[in-house]
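Researcher: Next entry in the queue.
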Amino acid sequence: MDRQLTLVELQQVSKSYGSMFALNNVNLKLSAGKIIGLLGPNGSGKTTLIKLLNGLLQPNYGQILINGHRPSPETKKIVSYLPDTTYLDESHGSC
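Model: Structure for this entry, 95 residues:
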């Protein structure tokens, strides 16, 4: 039997900002070797999910596993994030 490796797993993940939930009790399994797209309107939790997968945010509840490990510097070899906005202070000039 051919079993697919689960690369990303979310177990009852919730993330809120104040009283507003960006993600509420999300359960998800993504297999390795797939291309996945996140579609939804603004404010539906796409960016929050990506930041949780990269460890840039922590869930209020639940567990996230990437290749069996919680998001950490080690999992950044598997999942990465390139934002469309820079978060670095550009007022100090370049080298």
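Model: Strands lie at 6-17, 20-31, 61-66.
Researcher: Noted, moving on.
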